[in-house]
């Protein structure tokens, strides 16, 4: 094997070992990573910075590293959630046909919302999301809908930091709790430009027979079009399709308009 190939494989091995080391416990600094990998601190630092630049590691204020959000994507793609994507593809297509807006199928992975499926809007002005994209759950309709459906999950999430992503992102735990309670009572959640200014969404949870929310269907669109369509009108459609999707997974359907 050529030396360059060996070096390449060695770098890949070190990267995988570094990710495993960080995943095993609390955040680690460059010195600790070097010891775990039995390499120099300079090499460990360069490798950590490369992984950080690509989203596989995040650096804390004290310079230690923890797993980054991109580590969640391969797991989401390779797990049983892929089967869920196929199970709910018909619902995604149905919601898109009814609204002609961008439709998202979202699941939670730790403290991240992951886009499992998506169909873009047919309108000239569109908002899009690629499969595998990750978001903070408190800033997107799908994440909010799932958090609202599970009290334990909601409380656990509220105990952590709420990052800001736009001027309208809700970062106060008490305010977000109120929004989630209201979303649970209404049966749907609304993203009022929480992630990006001028981009809104309406989402509803998809549930298993046990009642557990395993995903959420949402419609994402510019704020101006949401004003024209109306939250109530759009939410009836989203809830109806999400309810039928839940029925497809074995949950008894609820009675609702739309």
TrEMBL record:
Keywords per UniProt: DNA-binding, Transcription, Transcription regulation
Ranges where the IclR-ED domain occurs: 70-251
Domain HTH iclR-type: 9-69
InterPro entries registered for this protein in UniProt: GAF-like_dom_sf, HTH_MetabolicPath_Reg, Tscrpt_reg_IclR_C, Tscrpt_reg_IclR_N, WH-like_DNA-bd_sf, WH_DNA-bd_sf
Pfam family name, one: HTH_IclR
Alphabetized PROSITE patterns for the sequence: HTH_ICLR (PS51077), ICLR_ED (PS51078)
Gene3D superfamilies: 3.30.450.40, Winged helix-like DNA-binding domain superfamily/Winged helix DNA-binding domain
Domain of life (superkingdom): Bacteria
Keyword Transcription regulation tagged: yes
Protein name per UniProt: IclR family transcriptional regulator
Protein's organism: Pseudonocardia xinjiangensis
């Amino acid at each position: 094997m050529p030396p360059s190939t060996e070096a390449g494989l060695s770098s890949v091995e070190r990267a995988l070992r570094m990710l495993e080391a960080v995943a095993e416990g609390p955040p680690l600094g460059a010195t600790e990573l070097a010891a775990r990998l039995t390499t120099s601190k300079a090499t460990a630092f360069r490798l950590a910075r490369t992984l950080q630049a690509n989203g596989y590691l995040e650096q804390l204020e004290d310079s230690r590293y923890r797993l980054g959000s991109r580590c969640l994507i391969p797991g989401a793609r390779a797990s049983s959630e892929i089967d869920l994507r196929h199970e709910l593809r018909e619902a995604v297509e149905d919601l898109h046909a009814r609204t002609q807006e961008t439709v998202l199928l979202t699941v939670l992975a730790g403290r991240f919302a992951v886009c499992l499926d998506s169909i873009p809007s047919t309108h000239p002005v569109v908002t899009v999301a690629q499969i595998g994209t990750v978001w903070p759950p408190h800033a997107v309709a799908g994440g909010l809908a799932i958090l609202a459906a599970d009290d334990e999950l909601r409380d656990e999430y509220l105990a952590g930091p709420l990052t800001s992503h736009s001027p309208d992102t809700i970062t106060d735990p008490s305010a977000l709790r109120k929004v989630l309670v209201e979303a649970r009572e209404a049966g749907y959640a609304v993203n009022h430009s929480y992630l990006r200014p001028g981009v809104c969404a309406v989402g509803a949870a998809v549930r298993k027979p046990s009642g557990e929310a395993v995903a959420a269907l949402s419609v994402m669109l510019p704020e101006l079009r949401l004003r024209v369509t109306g939250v109530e009108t759009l939410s009836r459609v989203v809830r109806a399709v999400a309810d039928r999707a839940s029925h497809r997974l074995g949950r008894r359907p609820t009675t609702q308009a739309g």
